[in-house]
Amino acid sequence: MAGQINDPHGANAPVASKVEDSWGDLSSFIMDHVTAARDSRDRMYKQRWDAYERTYRGMWSDQERTREGERSRIIAPALSQAIDSISAQIEDAIFSRDQWFDAIDDVNDGERDDVEGARVKLVEDFEIAGVPEQIAKVILNGCLYGTGIGKINITRREVKTVAQTPQGPSVRTEIRPLVTLDAVPPWEFVIDTQARDLASAMFCAHETFVPKTVIWSKQHQGIYRKVFVDGAPAAETPTPGGQPIYDQTRQSGEYDGSVWVTEYYGLVPAKLLKGRAEVDADDIDGHGMVEAIVVIANESEILKAQVNPFIMKDRPIIAYQHDIVPGKFWGRGVAEKGWNAQRALDAELRARMDALGLLTSPMLGADITRLPRNPDMRVRPGKVWLTRGRPSEVLEPILLGNIDPNTFNQSSEMERLVQVGTGAIESNAPLNTDRRNETASGISMIQSSALKRLRRSVWNLERQFLNPLVRKSMWRYMQFNPERYPQDFQFRVAGAMGIVSREFEQSNLTALLSVVPPESPAYQVILKGVVELSGTPKRDELLKQIEEMFKPNPEQQQMQQMQAQMAMQQAQLEMVKLQAEIEEIKAEIELTREKTRHERITADLEDEKIDIQAANTVIGREKARATFEQNEIARQRNEIDAKKIAAQNRAKKSPK
After folding, report:
1. Helix H or strand E encompassing 147
2. In the predicted model, what is the mean pLDDT of residues 596-620?
3. Prediction pTM value
4. What is the CA radius of gyration of the chain?
5. Same domain, yes or no, for 364 and 280?
C-alpha cells in the first residue's frame, strides 16, 4: 500500500489547542499570494492554453471562428502533427538508449564506484516508479503549452521481487521508499508573478482536485490534520483545457466528491509557523521567512504545515521551457510557434468547405406567384414540382460559380508555414509545393534543419529538467533510504546530450585507433581516452592495466635502439641513392629540354620553306597571267593590222 512519508522533523505532531484557532492567518497569507498569482496567470495565458489544447485535440468551439458567417468546423491536423512529431523526437533522443542519464562523482572523491552503483539502482527505481512515462507527459506539455512542469514525490511502496531458493522461486515483498514524478499541467501550477525561474520565486504551488477518500486516508495515517473537508461543487471547478466544466457529466452546482487541494512550496513568515511546526533558528533567513511546505484544502483548511524537510532545502518542483522566452517563466511551445499559420490554414479550409456547400447543394429561384400555396421547396430525387405554367419559366437553378483552384496551393502553403514555424519539417508536403521532397538529399536537408532547432529544446530539457530531476531524486534516496544509496551528496549529472557527446567523441577516438599504429606513442593516449569516455565501472582498473601494458622493457628498449640505428643507416644509404637518382633525372631532363629546342627550330625552318614555296607559286601565277595578257594584246594588234590591210585593199579596188 502506498503512503506519504511522514515529516522527519515532526511537523505533524499535535500542537497546543491555543493555536488551533489561528491557522487562518497562515491560510490567508498563502491564499492571498496564490490567488493573485493565479489571476495574473489566467489573465495572460489561460485563453491561449485553452485554444492550443482545442486545436491539438480537434475540439471546435465558437472561439475558433475566423469570420462571422463561417459554418464549417474543420480543424486541420497540421499543428497537432507538428506537436506529436517534435515530442516523439525528443523522447527518442532521451530514451533511445538504456543509459539515458549518467551520474559522475566529483573530482575530489577517491571512491568513484559508489555513485556509479547508485546510478544503476536509480535507473531501476525510476522504472518501478514509472518516471519515464511521466517525463514523456512533461515533454508533451512542454511542446503544447511551452512549459513542462513536474513534481517530485517521495512515497513508500511495496516492491515485489522473485528470488531463487532451494525450494524454488519465491516472491519477496519489500516496503521501499520510491521517488515518483507527476506531470503538472500549467493551469494547475501557480508561481510568483515576477519570478523568472523556480529558484528566484518566492513561492510556487500546485492546485488540483484530489478524491476525498485520499484526504481521509492521509488524515487517518496522521499525515494530514483531522479537519473537516468536503467536496467542491462543479461550479467552483476551474476550466482546464478549454472545457466548459471540469466534468461534463455533471451539471453546474452538482455535488462532487473531490477536494480542491493547494500544495504551497515557498517562503512564509516564521511567526506563522511557530507553535504549528518545529522551526530552527538556522531555517529562518534574514527577513524572518522560512522555506515551508503547506497543504490547504478548499482554499481554507490547512491540512499540513511544515518546514522544508529535505536535506538540501530544495523545492520538489522542476520545470523547463521548450523555447526560452527571456525574462519570463513561461516558455514558448510548438503550438505557439505555429498558431498563426494554423489559424490561416483553418480559415482557408473552412472557406473552401463553405463554398462547396453552396455549390453541391442545389438552390432554386422561383416565381412565388406561380407556385401552389405552401409549397415544399425541399429537393429530392423523383420529386414532382407543381407549378402554374411551364416549370422552366417558374423555377430556375441558381449557380454561384466554381471554387478557385488556387485555394489548393494556398492551403499547401499554409501547411508549409506551420512546418516552418514549428521546426517540424516533414516530407509529406506535395511535390509541386516543395521540390526538395523529390530527392534524398533534399529530405536530408529538411531533417538537418529540423534537428538543429530541436537540439536547443533538448538542451533546455536536459539542463532545466532532467539534470535537476536526477540530482534531487538521488538526494531523496540518500536521505530516506541510506541503506540502499551511499551518503555521497557531491556528484555531477550528465544527461542525454552529454552522453551523446561522449559517445560521439569516443567513436572518433575509436576510429583513430584503426589508423594509428600500435607502436606509436599516440596509440596509448587514444586508447586511454576511449576508456575514460566509456561508462564502464571498471575504468580505473582498465587504465592501470593500460599503463602496465605500455611500460617499456629494458631488453626491448635495447633492441629498439639497435633497430633504430640500423634504420638510420639504412635511411642514410637510401638518401645517397636517392640523390644519385635525382642527379640522373636532372640530366635526363636537360637532354630532353635540348632535344625539344632543336625540334622546335627545325619545325620553324620547315614553316619558312613552306612560306617561300607559297610565295614562288604566287609569283609564277602572276608571270603566267602577265604573259597571257601580252599575248592577248599582240593578237589584238594583229587583228587590227589585218583589218587595216583589208581596208586598204578594198580601197584600191574600188573605182575612183
Report:
1. strand 147-165
2. 83
3. 0.67
4. 47
5. no
